[in-house]
Each structure stands twice: as C-alpha cells, then as structure tokens.
Amino acid sequence: MSEKKFYITTPIFYANAELHIGHTYTLILSDILARYHRAVGDKTFFLTGSDEHGDKIVRAAQKVNLGPQAFVNENVAKMEALIRELGVSNDFFIRTSDKELHWPGAKKLWRALEEAGDIYKGTYKGLYCVGCEAFITEKELVNGKCVHHDTAPEHIEEENYFFKLSKYGSEIRRLMEEGVLKITPQSKVNEMIALIAGPSGESVLGDVSISRPERAIPWGIPVPNDPAQLMYVWCDALSNYISALGYGSDNEEKFKIFWPADIQVLGKDIVRFHALLWIAMLLSAKLPLPRELLVHGFVNSGGKKMSKTLGNVLSPGEFIAEYGKDALRYYFAREVTPSEDWDLTREKFKEVYNANLANGLGNLVSRTLKMAEQYFVGNVTGDVASVPAIRTKISAVEISGDVAGLNIPYIITNSILTRYHAYMSANEINKAADVIWELISHLDQFVTDFEPFKLVKTDKKAAENVIWGLLYGLREVAQMLIPMMPDTAKTILELVGASVSANGETAFSSKAPAEPLFKRKE
Ligand code: ME8
C-alpha cells in the first residue's frame, strides 16, 4: 500500500442544460482513475462540479422564466442524480454559486494576481461569444460566426480588468517543452506552443480581460473592492479546483494536502483555458502547477458532431436504462481511446455489448459457476500447482520466474497483472481493459481445451483442478474490473466466494447466478 496522495478533477460543467454522453465520458474516465488509485491505497480526492455564472446561464434561465439561482439549482439536481446513477465516486461536488466555499477561494486568487501586479484596468473593445463565454477575434470567425456555436459574436466596448497573461507566455512554453507541465497527448503541447509562439519564437500571447461590468441581472462573483465589476466566468470557474479544497476559506487543510492536482481531466475544447490562462494564474499567484492535464477527444454520433439540430444526441439515461450503468462504463473504458475522437451508435453499442459482456464475460461467469455448482455443490478446492496449464497466466505475479520449462500452449511470459497496473497507472484505461479481456479469452480457451464437463466423468479431481483454475482466474478478472465496473466486480466476487486459508490456499464456496449478468439483446 502506498502513502501517496492523488487529486483528480473534471471540468465543472455548465449548469445550463443536462449532461450528455460527452460529459459522462469525462466523468467515467476520471472515476475509473480515481477508483483505481483508491484501490491501490492512494489517499484520493476526486472533484467534479458545476459552472453556474455568466451570461450563458442568465439567458438560458430567462428562456424558461426562472431566476438564475432557481434555474441552476434545478439543473444541478439533475446533474447530481445522473452522476449517482453512473456510479461516479466523487468526494465532493463544487458549485460556483457556493458563496461559503467557492467565492472566498476565487477572491483570494484574484487578490494574489493583484498583489503580483498582474491586474490592471483597461477598455475592452471587440467581440464576445456567449456560447464560449470568451472574447474572440475577427480571424477566428467563419462567415462571421463562431465555429463552435454557429452564432455571430456580440460587439462590446466596456471597461474591464485585464490580466497580464502576456507576462507568462515564454515561461509556460518553457515548462511545456521541458515536460514540467505535462499535457497528454503530446500533440496538445504543440498546439499550445503554436498559440504562444510568434514568427521568430517570441511569445505573442496577449493580455486577457478578466472582468465584465455588472449586468442588469447581477450573476457572478464581485471583483474584490470593485463590486461594479464581476469576475470573468473562466477565472471564476478555474479557481474551483482550489476553492473546493478550502483555499481562501478558514480551513485550508485539504488544500495543503491535495494541491497540486495529480491529474486534471478535460476535453479538447478547453485546453487553452487550462494550459494557458489557468497555468498563468497559478504562476502569478505562486502556487504549484498541476502535474498533468489529461485531454480527451470528442464523441460523435453516427459520424457527425452530436447536436440537437442534427437530431443525433444520445442520452446517457437511454443506455443506462437499456443496458445498465456498468455496460456504459465498460464501453467508455474499453471501446474508446481517450486521446482520440470516437463515434457512438446504438448498433455498435449493442454489438459490443453482446460480444464482450453477454457472451464474453457473462457467459464465462455462468458456465464456470454452473459447473462448480453441478459437480461440486459450489465448493471447490485446489492450488496453483495442480493447474499447470494456466498457472502462468492466472497467477503470473505469484509464480513469476516459474515459467521456463512448462512447455504447454498456455504459457504467456508477460504477466497480465503487471501489464494491467502499468496501463492503469499511465491512464491508458482502454489498454488495461484489453488486458482483462485477454485473460477472459484465455479462460474461455481453457474450458475449450480441457473440457471439464467431460473430464468430470473420468477424473473428478482433474476436473476440480480445472474449475478451481477458472474460479481463480475469474476472481482476478473481477479484481481488475473494480475501477471500471464496480457493481459487476462486486457481484462476481460474491458469486465466486473465495477464501484464503492461513497456509495461503485459496478455496471457493461459489454459487451460480440466478440470472445471466448481462442478458443478450436481440
Ligand atoms: O466547458 N465529447 O463546461 P461544459 C466528449 N464550464 N466530451 C465532451 C463533449 C463531447 N462531445 N462535450 C463536452 C465547460 N464534453 C466549462 C468548463 S472548467 C474550469 C470550466 C466534456 O459543460 C469535455 O470534458 O461545456 C469538455 O471539456 C467538458 O465536457 C465541457 O463541459
């Protein structure tokens, strides 16, 4: 067991609408990593939350005739309900409208920037996209519209506070190039450097406006000592990662333990806010930097961007209702490469579900447990040595080094568990999941080759050894599945019923499931 701490965050989601499949991917990816780190003994803190201020929220609230606070309360309640349904194990949910916890943190960070001499007053004249909650330039527009929101930005001219982002461009570039600031995948580093670097390598990063004049409906955090200005939503939102730990409150204990974040998970749409603005704010406030920004790709639906206008939005609730939450978690864990864009269709989901859950995992569990029940009333004893054919695969960690000399087709020299842990600690959850399914297919092959259902008629002890090996393997499958499919893992562990005696022997007191774990869908 390690003594390490592990702090992981997701972006805080806009409380203007329900979460869709894309948001739930971010949550599950982060949850799998959080659960893994808890399982290996790291002192873990997993944060998610909601981004509740800004014009985007005020306008969405007006459309449904609600005040902003009532509107976000409704949406946040739905968000939190879905988060529970997905089995997300966050330790805290931060809301930017939380005046007790979040506001003091956001204000303390502001004052730190001010003390560093990095805030000044100026006039902003230009374009603003409410969808992005960001100032944008003429050259970023396509046909006069924001490419992300397909809407024309607003012209504004107003007095604002500015942050000296320009001061930090070269330093951020150096930190990224030296790998001190790790961004995964590496291609995002190059994208960020391209934004920073001018034609002869100098930083061309400009300063940014970090406040807006107070609105008709004041909805945001007032700037310290100037309540006529509200903090720019991104500065407000980014500070959640430390305010949630109590930064700026009268108890900064958690902040001292957990900051800096070990992993900040985010989608590719908001890399520049995190890699540039957030990092510059931390540098200005002289706070440690996050150890890694883990950027994931976007989900499409049927080859197209998921959008209401195209009518191809897939809701997480639909998949949970039809297949169960662990099936959705399986899909996110194994069928998606985190750094890439991917595509989800109902057809593909069903195909993968039938092949790998109903047939693959589910079928192996039922077959094994039925044989154990039928031939041995569930009570199976044995040991690794009497299962020579699979011992190197199933218990590679225990008997590694004992591989040579066993000239049988099952030997694999690269251990399952070692590779699983290596991938999980490198955040490559899809590869770790592949390793689990590699073990599942070895176990399937083992049944095919040794046919315990025939063997039991001629040599009962030999059949018991084979079934013991299968149960042993299933237990290992379940243990590796804990972060990805927590309920399924728990069910399998209960069904298998392993116990280890004082002299280290594993015995099983198993029972067959009343129903298949994953019903086949036609
Ligand atoms: O940007 N595919 O909030 P947001 C994959 N409040 N992931 C997706 C996705 C898709 N199609 N769509 C969204 C904000 N996401 C700000 C963040 S943080 C200080 C403030 C995920 O509700 C992805 O992780 O628009 C993306 O970064 C996040 O949701 C944006 O959520």
Structure description:
- This protein has helices at residues 21-39, 55-63, 68-85, 102-115, 169-177, 187-196, 233-238, 240-243, 253-258, 271-284, 316-323, 325-334, 346-376, 391-394, 396-399, 416-425, 429-450, 452-458, 460-481, 486-496, and strands at residues 5-14, 43-51, 92-95, 119-129, 134-136, 154-163, 182-184, 208-209, 211-213, 222-223, 226-231, 263-267, 292-296, 299-301, 304-305, 342-344, 379-381, 498-500, 506-509.
- By secondary structure, the protein is α/β, with parallel strands linked by helices.
- It has a domain at 345-509: Isoleucyl-tRNA Synthetase, Domain 1, CATH 1.10.730.10.
- The chain has a six-stranded parallel β-sheet with strand order 3-2-1-12-13-7, with helices on both faces. A four-stranded antiparallel β-sheet has the order 5-4-6-8.
- A hairpin with a 4-residue loop joins strand 4 (119-129) and strand 5.
- Helix 2 crosses helix 3 (68-85), helix 13 (346-376) packs antiparallel against helix 19 (460-481) and helix 18 (452-458) packs antiparallel against helix 19 (460-481).
CATH superfamily descriptor of the domain at 345-509: Isoleucyl-tRNA Synthetase, Domain 1
What's the arrangement of strands in the largest beta sheet? Answer: 3-2-1-12-13-7
Shape: elongated
- Bound small molecules, deduplicated: ligand ME8
Q: Could you describe the largest sheet, including whether it forms a barrel?
A: 6 strands, parallel
* Average pLDDT taken over every residue: 90
Quaternary: single chain
Regions with little confidence, pLDDT below 50 for 5+ residues? 390-414
CATH class type of the domain at 345-509: Mainly Alpha
Amount of beta strand: 15-25%
How many individual β-strands? 19
Distance between the ends? 45 Å
CATH topology of the domain at 345-509: Isoleucyl-tRNA Synthetase, Domain 1
CATH architecture heading of the domain at 345-509: Orthogonal Bundle
